[in-house]
Design a protein that fits this description.
binds S-adenosylmethionine; seven-stranded mixed sheet; 2 domains; alpha/beta; 8 helices; Rossmann fold
Length: 341
């Protein structure tokens, strides 16, 4: 069943797309290219995303792909994300990359504040048309010669209150996540040799790990969000760090095994909870660590149960627990259910 967001878009597109044939298009804000199957001219359409998996899926469907708008377009479709600042940054980028006479289409749900967002945009760029449908709105904006460049700042990396480069389109940009802080205080000076940081974000865990542990020979950061990957490169200046823009759900044939794995696993895909993603990180931890190695993970209490960790590890030590988080050391990975990673 399609979400209301996409049902709204499909109805709108079926009515207007005939007049948009052979135009250069771009889609931004969405992590689900499969939701845009109604766009028939995929060969003329760039799917723009930070997420490695979404770009891979978009390419398979026949879209052109990129992490940024790279040329000028006749139509840019923005599906609002849950981050207002990210949306403003995307509007500013769209404004810059539309041909004069081109159109920007904004689609969003009431739940994420589409009404107030459209009001903010309309102060500088009045909408040509707004349609209210399926618990949300779609608006069309016509590009004129006038540029207002109002929200460009949201596309820049800036230093957050804890001193790290971040941007609004990544996990916990404003400050260090409390769960990650608990994890670093638990692994402390115990890491050595080859270390993997799974879902490394803007690099907090790895930076702390390197600072506290002279015995680390190399740390490999795996992250699927392109801007977080770029931010981590800006935050960590240490020859022992290796950065990989990769989706852990799709790494295959990784021969290397690590002495330690550190991880604050994700449990959301876009706006919805995704426990299978969380589970795949636990599974991967068990595959990537060597048989004497150790996985250090933090969980939000209530999201995953200690007992469920026994599916992949023989030995589970809870090293910290409060009503918000628990941090554990996972030892003796089980080998059953082996899949190539
Ligand atoms: C809870 S955050 C932790 C970020 C960082 N380690 C920290 O402690 O601040 C989880 C991270 O996993 C990343 N992620 C989500 N799915 C991923 C995947 N399939 N492969 C690699 N990274 C992924 C997210 O982009 C996010 O940065």
């Amino acid at each position: 069943m399609h979400s209301l967001t996409i049902q709204r878009f499909e109805t709108f597109w079926s009515q207007l797309s005939p007049s948009f044939s052979n135009r250069k298009l771009a889609i931004m804000g969405s992590e689900k290219p499969q939701n845009f199957n109604c766009v028939k001219t995929k060969h003329l359409c760039h799917f723009i995303s930070n997420a490695k998996d979404s770009l891979r899926d978009a390419k398979r469907l026949g879209f052109m792909i990129s992490t940024n708008l790279e040329c000028n377009y006749d139509i840019i479709i923005l599906e609002l994300t849950k981050s207002r600042e990210t949306n403003l940054g995307l509007v500013s980028s769209a404004e810059e990359h539309l041909n004069v006479g081109g159109k920007m289409i904004i689609n969003g749900d009431n739940q994420i504040g589409v009404k107030s967002f459209l009001k903010t945009v309309s102060i500088h760029w009045p909408a040509e048309m707004v349609i209210t449908k399926k618990k949300g709105k779609i608006a069309i904006f016509l590009k004129t010669k006038k540029l207002f460049c109002r929200w460009k700042k949201y596309r820049d990396f800036s230093i957050n209150r804890d001193g790290y480069y971040t941007r609004c389109d990544m996990f916990s940009p404003k400050e260090i996540d409390k769960g990650s802080q608990k994890l670093t205080s638990v692994f402390s000076t115990n890491l050595f040799g080859e270390v993997a940081d799974l879902g490394s974000g803007w690099g907090y865990l790895s930076k702390e790990a390197l600072k506290l542990n002279a015995r680390i020979t190399r740390i490999t950061l795996f992250e699927s969000n392109y801007s977080a990957y770029l931010a981590s490169k800006k935050n960590i200046d240490d020859k022992r760090a290796t950065f990989r823009w990769a989706s852990l759900e799709n790494i295959t044939n990784l021969k290397q095994r690590f002495n330690h794995v550190i991880c604050n696993p994700p449990f959301h895909s876009g706006r919805s909870k995704d426990l299978s993603l969380l589970k795949s990180f636990i599974f991967l931890g068990s595959r990537l660590v060597n048989s004497q190695g150790c996985v250090w993970m933090v969980f939000v209490s209530g999201v995953y149960l200690e007992n469920e960790l026994r599916e992949y590890f023989e030995n589970i030590k809870i090293l910290y627990k409060d009503k918000h988080y628990f941090v554990c050391q996972l030892l003796k990975p089980k080998t059953k259910g082996y899949k190539h990673v």
